[in-house]
Amino acid sequence: MPPPGQAAMPGEPAAPGAEVSLGTIAAQWLRIGITGFGGPPAHISLLRELCVTRRGWVSEQEFEDGIAATNLLPGPASTQLSILCAWRLRGWRGALLGGACFIVPGLIAILVLAVLLLSGSPAAPVLGAASGAGAAVAAVAVQAGARLIPASWRRAGPGRPGRCRWIGYLVVGALAALLLGPWLVLVLVAAGLVETGVHGARHRTTRDGRRRPAPGLPPIALATLASSSVLGALSWTALKVGALSYGGGFVIIPLMRADAVDHHHWLTGDQFLYAVALGQITPGPVVQTVAVVGYAAAGLLGGVLAAVVAFAPSFVFVLAGARHFDRLRAAPAVQAFLSGAGPAAIGAILGSAVSLALSLTHLWQVPVLAAAAVWLLGLRRGVVTALLAAGGLGVLAALAGMPVQ
C-alpha cells in the first residue's frame, strides 16, 4: 500500500489524513471489532466492504496486496491487515487507534467469559456449554489446517523434490506439535531456514560462476524471560504466540497448550478446550485465546498482559514494515522461508487436533466431536454455528445429568 498522506488522483481512494478523521477510524474499526464473528474470513470481508466497496479509501489492488503482505508475517494476519488499512489512512496514529479498536471488544468479551468459566463454581449448564463447545475444537483445528493446504502446496511448486520437502515439513510439524511441546516454535523456524538454505544453494551462483552470499533472513533474537516469575513465563508464552506463529491463528494452539497445560499447569486440558472455544465464538482474532491463559495464570492483570504482549508484535511489524512490504514480498529468502515454515505450521495445526481430541474426558463428547467434524469438513459449514450447536448439546447433556466437569 502507498504511504499515508499521498494525494489522491481522480478515481483513486480519498487522500489519507485529509478526509478520514481519527474519530471515523475509531468508530468504524470498533464496529468491525464488535461484529467480527467468524474469524479471519469475516474480518477480511468486513474490512474490504468498508475500505474498498463502501468508502473507497483504498483500491481493490491495494487491499489484495495488503492481504498478501500481512500473510507473509507471523502472527494474526487479519489483525495485521486491520492495522495496515488504518495506517494507510492516518499513519501511525491511525494504525495504533484502529488496531486497538479492532482488538479491544473481543478482548473484553473473552475476559468476561473467562471470569464466568474459571472463577468459583459455574452452574452445570454453563460447564456443559463449555464442554460441548470444547469437544468440537479438534474438528475446528482440522478444518483450519485443511484450508491452508492448497495455497501452501502450490507454493511448493510442480517439481517432485519441492513437494517431497513440503510433505516432510508437514510431517515434522505434526510430530513436533505432539511430542515437543514448547520447542515447537524452533521446529517451525528450522523448517523455514532449511528451505531458505535449499533455495539459496540453488540460486547463489552468479552468471560468471563466482559464488556470493545467499540472501538470508535477519537473525531472530529471543530474550528468555525469568521462568521463576509467573508474569515472566506468561509474557514469554504470549510473545511466542504473537511473534513466532507462522501459518495463521490456529498454530498458536499447540504453542499455548504446551505451556499452559503441560508445563506450567495454569489450565487443565478441559479448561484449555474451553479457552479455544471462547476464542472462536467471540469477535476478533483467535489469538484472543491467550487472554484466557493469562487470566488463569494471573487473574485479570495476566489476561490483559498476555493480550498486550501477544498483539504488540503485530503493531511493530506493520509500523516498521508497511512502507517496505512490496520489497518484502519479492525477497526470494522470505518466500523460501515461508515455503518451509508454512507446511510445518500446517502440520502443527493438524497435530494439535490429535492432542485436543485426546483431551476430551467424557464419553458423550465423542459424538459431539463427530457431529462437528461432519458439519465442518463434510458439509463445509461455519465454525461459529458448529461451536454454538455443540455448546447447546453440552447444555442438554448437563440437564440430563451427564458429567460436565
Automatic annotation (TrEMBL):
GO cellular component: plasma membrane
UniProt similarity note: Belongs to the chromate ion transporter (CHR) (TC 2.A.51) family.
Main location: membrane
Key words, A-Z: Cell membrane, Membrane, Transmembrane, Transmembrane helix
Listed GO MF terms: chromate transmembrane transporter activity
Protein name (record): Chromate efflux pump, ChrA
Endpoints of the signal sequence: none
InterPro entries in the record: Chr_Tranpt_l_chain, CHR_Transporter, Chromate_transpt
Subcellular location: Cell membrane
Transmembrane segments: 96-119, 126-146, 166-194, 272-298, 304-322, 334-356, 362-379, 386-404
Pfam families (alphabetical): Chromate_transp
